[in-house]
Amino acid sequence: SSHTFMPLMCFTLLFGVVSGTQVTPPHSTIRPGFPVPVNTHSPEVRRAARFGVYRYNNSSNDLFLFKESQIKQAMVQIVRGLKYMLHVEIKRTVCHKRDHPSLDSCHFQKEKNLQQMLRCYFEVWITPWTHKVRIPVAHCH
């Protein structure tokens, strides 16, 4: 559904560091191709995690949508864009998948028998100058 890709328009604003195909590393000590830890609370990391969640929701058979509850660990690698490697906990929300609501307005399940938490590993590859997002890896258990 089209709502999944709406946040793409934000990338040019978010990644002001990008010019052409050059991505300026956050610290001069970071070499391209070398993964480094990043703050799990940063807007960029949270946005990348949300893309992983979209990917999970699109492929799950659950009646309800899941949403990220905690980003446990985040790394970023500069490789023809920004590749995020994320360990994320996601939980079942009260929103039905068929209704396509915004995940921001979806609250977590309060009913004990409907609550579920999964641990996920997402790889989210963002090339800001082409407005492309790829999620080559999304494993949840």
From TrEMBL:
A single GO molecular function term of this UniProt record: cysteine-type endopeptidase inhibitor activity
Pfam families: Cystatin
Organism: Calcarius ornatus (Chestnut-collared longspur)
PANTHER family found in the cross-reference section: CYSTATIN-F
Family statement drawn from the similarity comment of this UniProt entry: Belongs to the cystatin family.
Coiled coil: none
Positions of the Cystatin domain: 30-141
Name listed for the protein in its UniProt record: Egg-white cystatin
Superkingdom in the source lineage: Eukaryota
Keywords of this entry: Disulfide bond, Signal
Signal peptide, first to last residue: 1-20
GO biological process: immune response; negative regulation of microglial cell activation; positive regulation of myelination
Gene3D superfamilies: 3.10.450.10
GO terms under cellular component: endoplasmic reticulum; extracellular space; Golgi apparatus; late endosome; lysosome
CDD domains: CY
